[in-house]
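Exercise 7.
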Amino acid sequence: MYPVPDQTGRLAVVTGANSGTGKEAAKRLAGAGAHVVLAVRTVAKGEQARVEILAAHPGARIEVRRVDMADLGSVREFADGLLAAGTPVDLLLNNAGVMAPPTRMTTADGFELQFGSNYLGPFALTVRLLPLLLAAPAPRVVTMSSAVAHYGRIRFDDLQWERRRYRPHRAYAQSKLADLLMARRLAAVADERGWRLASVAAHPGFTRTNLQTAGASLGRDRPKRTVFNTVRVAPTQGPEQGAEPMLFAAADPAAVNGGYYGPSGRFELVEPTAPARVPRRARDAALAARLWAESERLTGAALPVPTA
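Solution. The predicted structure, written as C-alpha coordinates, is:
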Protein backbone atom coordinates (compact mmCIF):
# COMPACT_ATOMS: atom_id res chain seq x y z
CA MET A 1 0.00 0.00 0.00
CA TYR A 2 1.43 3.39 -1.05
CA PRO A 3 2.09 5.55 2.06
CA VAL A 4 0.74 9.04 1.32
CA PRO A 5 3.11 11.70 2.69
CA ASP A 6 1.83 14.14 5.31
CA GLN A 7 -0.76 16.50 3.80
CA THR A 8 -1.51 18.59 6.87
CA GLY A 9 -2.62 22.11 5.97
CA ARG A 10 -3.34 21.29 2.32
CA LEU A 11 -6.69 21.65 0.55
CA ALA A 12 -7.48 18.89 -1.94
CA VAL A 13 -10.39 18.91 -4.39
CA VAL A 14 -11.27 15.45 -5.70
CA THR A 15 -13.91 15.06 -8.41
CA GLY A 16 -15.91 11.86 -8.55
CA ALA A 17 -15.02 11.25 -4.91
CA ASN A 18 -18.14 9.31 -3.92
CA SER A 19 -16.94 5.93 -5.23
CA GLY A 20 -14.09 3.92 -6.71
CA THR A 21 -10.62 5.36 -7.02
CA GLY A 22 -11.87 8.87 -6.28
CA LYS A 23 -13.25 7.88 -2.89
CA GLU A 24 -10.13 5.87 -2.11
CA ALA A 25 -7.88 8.82 -3.00
CA ALA A 26 -10.01 11.19 -0.93
CA LYS A 27 -9.94 8.80 2.02
CA ARG A 28 -6.18 8.43 2.00
CA LEU A 29 -5.51 12.13 1.49
CA ALA A 30 -7.84 12.91 4.39
CA GLY A 31 -6.09 10.28 6.48
CA ALA A 32 -2.79 12.01 5.73
CA GLY A 33 -4.14 15.30 7.06
CA ALA A 34 -5.53 17.11 4.01
CA HIS A 35 -8.77 19.08 4.07
CA VAL A 36 -10.65 17.30 1.29
CA VAL A 37 -13.51 18.60 -0.84
CA LEU A 38 -15.58 15.74 -2.23
CA ALA A 39 -16.71 17.18 -5.56
CA VAL A 40 -19.66 15.00 -6.60
CA ARG A 41 -22.66 15.06 -8.92
CA THR A 42 -25.04 13.51 -6.35
CA VAL A 43 -24.76 15.12 -2.92
CA ALA A 44 -26.41 12.21 -1.10
CA LYS A 45 -23.74 9.83 -2.41
CA GLY A 46 -21.06 12.32 -1.44
CA GLU A 47 -22.45 12.52 2.09
CA GLN A 48 -22.42 8.73 2.34
CA ALA A 49 -18.78 8.70 1.22
CA ARG A 50 -18.03 11.36 3.83
CA VAL A 51 -19.56 9.19 6.55
CA GLU A 52 -17.49 6.19 5.42
CA ILE A 53 -14.27 8.21 5.36
CA LEU A 54 -14.94 9.70 8.79
CA ALA A 55 -15.54 6.21 10.15
CA ALA A 56 -11.99 5.35 9.12
CA HIS A 57 -10.49 8.74 10.05
CA PRO A 58 -12.69 10.39 12.73
CA GLY A 59 -10.65 13.57 12.83
CA ALA A 60 -10.59 14.15 9.07
CA ARG A 61 -11.67 17.46 7.55
CA ILE A 62 -14.08 16.65 4.73
CA GLU A 63 -16.79 18.62 2.98
CA VAL A 64 -19.14 17.76 0.14
CA ARG A 65 -19.81 20.12 -2.75
CA ARG A 66 -21.89 19.47 -5.84
CA VAL A 67 -20.49 19.66 -9.34
CA ASP A 68 -21.72 18.01 -12.53
CA MET A 69 -18.82 17.66 -14.94
CA ALA A 70 -21.33 17.23 -17.77
CA ASP A 71 -22.66 20.76 -17.21
CA LEU A 72 -20.34 23.73 -17.70
CA GLY A 73 -22.73 25.93 -15.73
CA SER A 74 -22.37 23.60 -12.75
CA VAL A 75 -18.58 23.62 -13.15
CA ARG A 76 -18.58 27.42 -13.16
CA GLU A 77 -20.85 27.57 -10.08
CA PHE A 78 -18.63 25.11 -8.21
CA ALA A 79 -15.47 27.04 -9.08
CA ASP A 80 -17.10 30.35 -8.15
CA GLY A 81 -17.98 28.91 -4.73
CA LEU A 82 -14.37 28.01 -4.04
CA LEU A 83 -13.14 31.33 -5.41
CA ALA A 84 -15.53 33.19 -3.11
CA ALA A 85 -14.12 31.30 -0.13
CA GLY A 86 -10.63 32.33 -1.25
CA THR A 87 -8.72 29.38 0.23
CA PRO A 88 -5.76 28.34 -1.95
CA VAL A 89 -6.19 24.91 -3.56
CA ASP A 90 -3.09 22.74 -3.17
CA LEU A 91 -4.37 19.69 -5.03
CA LEU A 92 -6.93 19.29 -7.81
CA LEU A 93 -7.63 15.69 -8.78
CA ASN A 94 -9.54 15.48 -12.06
CA ASN A 95 -10.88 11.98 -11.49
CA ALA A 96 -14.59 11.94 -12.38
CA GLY A 97 -15.64 10.38 -15.66
CA VAL A 98 -17.95 8.12 -17.61
CA MET A 99 -17.05 5.20 -19.83
CA ALA A 100 -18.52 3.90 -23.08
CA PRO A 101 -22.26 4.58 -22.92
CA PRO A 102 -23.68 2.25 -25.58
CA THR A 103 -25.50 5.01 -27.43
CA ARG A 104 -24.41 8.57 -28.11
CA MET A 105 -25.46 10.81 -25.24
CA THR A 106 -24.86 14.52 -24.76
CA THR A 107 -24.02 16.87 -21.92
CA ALA A 108 -26.14 19.81 -20.79
CA ASP A 109 -24.17 21.91 -23.28
CA GLY A 110 -24.69 19.54 -26.22
CA PHE A 111 -21.24 17.92 -26.25
CA GLU A 112 -20.78 14.18 -26.72
CA LEU A 113 -21.02 12.86 -23.16
CA GLN A 114 -17.55 11.34 -22.81
CA PHE A 115 -15.70 14.23 -24.43
CA GLY A 116 -17.74 16.70 -22.37
CA SER A 117 -17.62 14.91 -19.00
CA ASN A 118 -14.17 13.37 -19.15
CA TYR A 119 -12.36 16.26 -20.80
CA LEU A 120 -14.16 19.58 -21.30
CA GLY A 121 -15.56 19.65 -17.76
CA PRO A 122 -12.16 18.98 -16.14
CA PHE A 123 -10.53 21.46 -18.53
CA ALA A 124 -12.96 24.22 -17.54
CA LEU A 125 -12.64 23.39 -13.84
CA THR A 126 -8.85 23.45 -13.96
CA VAL A 127 -8.69 26.78 -15.78
CA ARG A 128 -11.30 28.41 -13.54
CA LEU A 129 -9.49 27.27 -10.38
CA LEU A 130 -6.07 28.48 -11.54
CA PRO A 131 -6.18 31.64 -9.35
CA LEU A 132 -6.58 29.47 -6.23
CA LEU A 133 -4.05 26.90 -7.43
CA LEU A 134 -1.43 29.54 -8.13
CA ALA A 135 -2.01 31.03 -4.67
CA ALA A 136 -0.85 27.77 -3.06
CA PRO A 137 2.86 27.25 -2.30
CA ALA A 138 3.32 24.04 -4.33
CA PRO A 139 0.08 23.24 -6.18
CA ARG A 140 -0.53 20.14 -8.27
CA VAL A 141 -3.20 19.27 -10.81
CA VAL A 142 -3.60 15.55 -11.41
CA THR A 143 -5.60 14.50 -14.45
CA MET A 144 -6.67 10.90 -14.90
CA SER A 145 -6.14 9.39 -18.31
CA SER A 146 -6.28 5.73 -19.37
CA ALA A 147 -4.14 3.17 -21.14
CA VAL A 148 -6.68 3.33 -23.98
CA ALA A 149 -5.33 6.80 -24.78
CA HIS A 150 -2.85 4.93 -26.98
CA TYR A 151 -5.74 4.23 -29.35
CA GLY A 152 -7.27 7.69 -29.19
CA ARG A 153 -7.50 10.17 -32.05
CA ILE A 154 -8.39 13.85 -31.79
CA ARG A 155 -10.77 14.43 -34.70
CA PHE A 156 -11.08 18.20 -34.90
CA ASP A 157 -13.56 17.88 -37.77
CA ASP A 158 -15.92 15.85 -35.55
CA LEU A 159 -15.00 16.06 -31.86
CA GLN A 160 -18.60 15.40 -30.82
CA TRP A 161 -19.22 12.32 -32.99
CA GLU A 162 -22.01 14.02 -34.93
CA ARG A 163 -20.91 13.05 -38.45
CA ARG A 164 -19.42 9.63 -37.93
CA ARG A 165 -21.07 6.51 -36.59
CA TYR A 166 -20.73 6.67 -32.82
CA ARG A 167 -18.29 4.11 -31.43
CA PRO A 168 -18.37 4.08 -27.61
CA HIS A 169 -14.84 2.90 -26.89
CA ARG A 170 -13.21 5.05 -29.56
CA ALA A 171 -15.03 8.07 -28.14
CA TYR A 172 -13.75 7.10 -24.69
CA ALA A 173 -10.20 6.76 -26.04
CA GLN A 174 -10.45 10.24 -27.62
CA SER A 175 -11.52 11.76 -24.30
CA LYS A 176 -8.66 10.07 -22.42
CA LEU A 177 -6.07 11.15 -25.00
CA ALA A 178 -7.45 14.67 -24.64
CA ASP A 179 -6.97 14.47 -20.86
CA LEU A 180 -3.34 13.50 -21.30
CA LEU A 181 -2.76 16.25 -23.85
CA MET A 182 -4.32 18.75 -21.45
CA ALA A 183 -2.08 17.65 -18.58
CA ARG A 184 1.05 17.93 -20.69
CA ARG A 185 0.03 21.29 -22.18
CA LEU A 186 -0.64 22.74 -18.71
CA ALA A 187 2.78 21.47 -17.60
CA ALA A 188 4.39 23.26 -20.54
CA VAL A 189 2.51 26.48 -19.81
CA ALA A 190 3.57 26.30 -16.16
CA ASP A 191 7.19 26.00 -17.25
CA GLU A 192 6.87 28.84 -19.76
CA ARG A 193 5.30 31.20 -17.23
CA GLY A 194 7.44 30.22 -14.28
CA TRP A 195 4.55 28.93 -12.21
CA ARG A 196 5.22 26.68 -9.23
CA LEU A 197 2.31 24.53 -10.37
CA ALA A 198 2.92 20.92 -11.40
CA SER A 199 0.55 19.26 -13.86
CA VAL A 200 0.77 15.48 -13.65
CA ALA A 201 -1.20 12.69 -15.34
CA ALA A 202 -1.95 9.18 -14.16
CA HIS A 203 -3.96 6.14 -15.14
CA PRO A 204 -5.37 3.36 -12.93
CA GLY A 205 -4.60 0.32 -15.06
CA PHE A 206 -7.35 -2.28 -15.09
CA THR A 207 -9.24 -1.37 -11.94
CA ARG A 208 -12.65 -2.69 -10.95
CA THR A 209 -14.94 0.29 -10.29
CA ASN A 210 -18.48 1.34 -11.19
CA LEU A 211 -17.08 3.30 -14.12
CA GLN A 212 -17.82 0.19 -16.16
CA THR A 213 -21.36 -0.12 -14.75
CA ALA A 214 -23.40 2.83 -13.50
CA GLY A 215 -20.89 5.27 -14.93
CA ALA A 216 -21.78 4.40 -18.49
CA SER A 217 -25.30 5.75 -18.13
CA LEU A 218 -24.73 8.15 -15.22
CA GLY A 219 -26.72 5.71 -13.11
CA ARG A 220 -29.99 6.52 -14.89
CA ASP A 221 -30.71 3.00 -16.11
CA ARG A 222 -29.33 -0.49 -16.13
CA PRO A 223 -26.02 -0.50 -18.06
CA LYS A 224 -25.54 -2.91 -20.91
CA ARG A 225 -23.20 -5.83 -20.43
CA THR A 226 -19.81 -5.15 -21.98
CA VAL A 227 -16.42 -6.80 -22.17
CA PHE A 228 -15.37 -4.62 -19.22
CA ASN A 229 -17.92 -6.04 -16.78
CA THR A 230 -18.47 -9.56 -18.05
CA VAL A 231 -15.21 -11.13 -19.25
CA ARG A 232 -12.04 -11.30 -17.18
CA VAL A 233 -9.34 -11.79 -19.78
CA ALA A 234 -6.62 -9.89 -17.91
CA PRO A 235 -5.47 -9.31 -14.33
CA THR A 236 -7.46 -6.67 -12.46
CA GLN A 237 -7.15 -4.81 -9.18
CA GLY A 238 -9.41 -3.07 -6.70
CA PRO A 239 -9.79 0.68 -6.08
CA GLU A 240 -7.21 0.55 -3.26
CA GLN A 241 -4.49 -0.33 -5.78
CA GLY A 242 -6.05 1.56 -8.70
CA ALA A 243 -5.92 4.86 -6.79
CA GLU A 244 -2.19 4.60 -6.16
CA PRO A 245 -0.93 6.19 -9.42
CA MET A 246 -3.23 9.15 -8.76
CA LEU A 247 -2.02 9.44 -5.17
CA PHE A 248 1.61 9.18 -6.25
CA ALA A 249 1.04 11.91 -8.83
CA ALA A 250 -0.70 14.09 -6.25
CA ALA A 251 1.57 13.69 -3.25
CA ASP A 252 4.92 12.06 -3.96
CA PRO A 253 8.03 14.27 -4.09
CA ALA A 254 9.31 12.15 -7.00
CA ALA A 255 6.36 12.99 -9.27
CA VAL A 256 7.50 15.54 -11.84
CA ASN A 257 5.75 18.29 -13.78
CA GLY A 258 4.55 16.77 -17.04
CA GLY A 259 4.96 13.23 -15.69
CA TYR A 260 2.62 10.32 -16.37
CA TYR A 261 2.22 7.42 -13.94
CA GLY A 262 0.46 4.06 -13.92
CA PRO A 263 0.84 0.45 -12.80
CA SER A 264 4.24 -1.12 -13.46
CA GLY A 265 3.06 -4.60 -14.50
CA ARG A 266 2.72 -6.06 -17.97
CA PHE A 267 0.64 -3.81 -20.24
CA GLU A 268 0.41 -1.41 -17.27
CA LEU A 269 -2.68 -3.25 -15.96
CA VAL A 270 -1.73 -3.89 -12.31
CA GLU A 271 1.21 -3.75 -9.86
CA PRO A 272 2.88 -0.78 -8.07
CA THR A 273 3.20 2.66 -9.61
CA ALA A 274 5.89 3.58 -12.11
CA PRO A 275 6.32 6.06 -14.98
CA ALA A 276 3.82 5.16 -17.71
CA ARG A 277 4.47 5.06 -21.45
CA VAL A 278 3.24 8.26 -23.09
CA PRO A 279 1.37 7.67 -26.37
CA ARG A 280 2.99 9.14 -29.45
CA ARG A 281 0.09 11.50 -30.10
CA ALA A 282 0.23 12.78 -26.54
CA ARG A 283 3.82 13.86 -27.16
CA ASP A 284 2.71 16.17 -30.00
CA ALA A 285 3.08 19.69 -28.57
CA ALA A 286 1.36 21.32 -31.57
CA LEU A 287 -1.63 19.00 -31.17
CA ALA A 288 -1.83 19.81 -27.47
CA ALA A 289 -1.73 23.56 -28.15
CA ARG A 290 -4.42 23.28 -30.83
CA LEU A 291 -6.66 21.23 -28.56
CA TRP A 292 -6.18 23.71 -25.72
CA ALA A 293 -7.20 26.62 -27.94
CA GLU A 294 -10.26 24.74 -29.17
CA SER A 295 -11.18 23.85 -25.60
CA GLU A 296 -11.04 27.49 -24.55
CA ARG A 297 -13.42 28.30 -27.39
CA LEU A 298 -15.85 25.50 -26.51
CA THR A 299 -15.90 26.11 -22.74
CA GLY A 300 -15.38 29.85 -22.49
CA ALA A 301 -12.65 29.22 -19.90
CA ALA A 302 -9.28 30.71 -20.82
CA LEU A 303 -5.82 31.09 -19.31
CA PRO A 304 -5.10 34.44 -17.68
CA VAL A 305 -3.29 36.86 -19.93
CA PRO A 306 0.45 36.83 -19.10
CA THR A 307 1.76 39.93 -17.36
CA ALA A 308 5.06 41.55 -18.15
